[in-house]
Amino acid sequence: SVDVSPYLFLDMFFISLYLGFGKRRYELFTMEEKSEDFKEVLKYYSVYYLDQLMVISATLGLGIYTMYTLSIPSKIFFYSVIIATFGIFRYYHITHNLKSGEPSEELLNDKLILLSAIALVLYDGVILYFHF
């Protein structure tokens, strides 16, 4: 039996917040003055505030993931932080430059996001499975 690291629980929490704040930011940005009619909760946010929340949650998520990789005996596991960082940056770019659609849809359709997710899973999986 293998216990799941508390680092991973925290990391998933902050990355989930990051994705959620990105989606909420996009809704607020695209709806502009009609945003309160669409979702009442949007009146409590500003684009600037959501940008700050995205940066904070991404930083915490990436920092915790980095600590997790350093806690693994294999030192080459740390290099997966590069792939994770690219994915974080790409989603940030999508939420700030998307012209139509939704960030959650774009997340599933963007080739670079998918490539980084597959690369991260394969890289981490090989290292953990083969104990490099």
Give structural notes.
This protein has 132 residues and is mainly α. It has one domain. Helix content is 76%, strand content 0%. The chain has helices spanning 6-31, 35-38, 47-71, 80-97, 103-109, 111-130. It is elongated, with a radius of gyration of 17 Å. The mean pLDDT is 89.
What's a quick, concise take on this entry?
The chain has six helices and no strands. The protein has 132 residues and is an all-alpha fold.
Spell the H/E element sequence.
HHHHHH
| Overall tally of domains | 1
Please describe the biggest sheet, giving its number of strands, its sense, and whether it closes into a barrel.
none
Query: Average pLDDT, to the nearest integer?
Result: 89
First-last Cα distance = 20 Å
Report the C-alpha radius of gyration, rounded.
17 Å
Shape: elongated
Q: From the helix content, strand content and strand pairing, which structural class follows? A: mainly alpha
How many β-strand runs?
A: 0
Helix-residue proportion: over 70%
Q: How many helices does DSSP assign?
A: 6
**Poorly predicted runs:** none
Residue share in β-strands: under 5%
